[in-house]
Amino acid sequence: MRLTDIGQIKELFNKYGFSFTKSLGQNFLINPTVCPRIAEMGGVTREVGVLEIGTGIGVLTRELAERGKKVVALEIDRTLEPILNETLGEYDNVEVIFADVMETDLQQLIKEKFDGMDVVVCANLPYYITSPVIMKLLEERLPIKSVTVMVQLEAAERICAAMGSRNCSALTAAVSWYSKPKKLFNVKPGSFMPAPKVDSAVIRLDLYDKPPYDVEDEKLFFSVIRQSFSQRRKQLINPLSGFFNIDKSVLSSAMTENGIKPTARAEELTMEDFVKLYRIIEGLKK
Ligand code: SAM
């Protein structure tokens, strides 16, 4: 079975009366080199359990099943079920669960399905929920080692930007808090059916056992980051003093004392600077 062969795919679609649902981000991989690379670079080996998000017709799922100990895959679209019964039928280490990833208790699922195994996430993500899915995987502190996913090239560049560089955003900071991100390779629109309008890239996030700095109130810390980037090309002192109700001259002096320029923009700050800024604001907010 070659699920990257357009003739075979069309045959399956006709046989089971399947048609694409654009709003679900259904762009299926047809480039035969991409799925094996995702599985290999995602660290999928015989000892590892794999969580996949969005099976489509199972092209990546099969590569994960070939290499991994066990694959549990979430798919929202039940109309894919008869196709998946055929394309994944030969594997006894694959379980497909028809559910919305955003509504799924992943902590519970990992505990139930991957007891005692190291777990990695591999997926060609539906682009309409790239950031929420990545943040869900990271914020819920799931017992996973890494996340290797296809995203839009622009998102990959934002996520993998260095802190303190022009491309960095609140998402960069959030992802860098929980993991070490790396862009692996680019993928052209012609590698998918139907072809998306944008270029894509595969990224890998290696999760830290614990965050790089001690922060007692993470909610406040992320609020400081979000506010700082809310007017990203402007001086961050303005949204911060407004949102946290701190006198601008007081905040300005505290920033200077801590080695942060009061005229700085969010994209110029390192993670260490954000931790300092959080501590300043924690002490000054009313
Ligand atoms: N892995 C397949 C491939 O590479 O060809 C399909 C990838 S396609 C980009 C994304 C898949 O995610 C689709 O099959 C879509 O139906 C599914 N999907 C979309 N939203 C989802 C959600 N909220 N939860 C789970 N799966 C979802």
Keywords:
18% strand, seven-stranded mixed beta sheet, 39% helix, two-stranded antiparallel ribbon, binds S-adenosylmethionine, 286 residues, alpha/beta
What do you see in this structure?
It is built from 12 helices and 9 strands. With about 290 residues, it is of the alpha/beta class. The protein has a 7-stranded mixed beta sheet with strand order 4-3-2-5-6-9-7, sandwiched between helices. Strands 1-8 form a two-stranded antiparallel sheet. The protein is elongated, with a radius of gyration of 21 Å. The mean pLDDT is about 95. S-adenosylmethionine binds near residues 29, 60, 100 and 124.
Chart the SSEs and their pairings:
Blueprint lengths: L5 H11 L11 E2 L4 H8 L6 E6 L5 H9 L2 E6 L5 H7 L6 E5 L7 H8 L4 E7 L5 H10 L6 E7 H8 L9 H9 E9 L4 E2 L6 E8 L10 H11 L8 H7 L4 H10 L13 H14 L2
Parallel strand pairs: 2-3, 2-5, 3-4, 5-6
Antiparallel strand pairs: 1-8, 6-9, 7-9
The structure holds S-adenosylmethionine (SAM).
Global morphology: elongated
Q: Tell me the span between the first and last alpha carbons.
A: 64 Å
User: What structural class results from the helix and strand content?
Assistant: alpha/beta
Small molecules bound: S-adenosylmethionine
Tell me the number of strands. Answer: 9
- Content of β-strand: 15-25%
Give, in spatial order, the strands making up the sheet with the most strands.
4-3-2-5-6-9-7
Task: Give the low-confidence spans.
Answer: none
Helix and strand element order: HEHEHEHEHEHEHHEEEHHHH
Largest sheet features: 7 strands, mixed
Radius of gyration: 21 Å
Number of H/I helices: 12
Q: Calculate the mean pLDDT score and round it.
A: 96
What fraction, in percent, of the residue positions are helical?
Answer: 25-40%
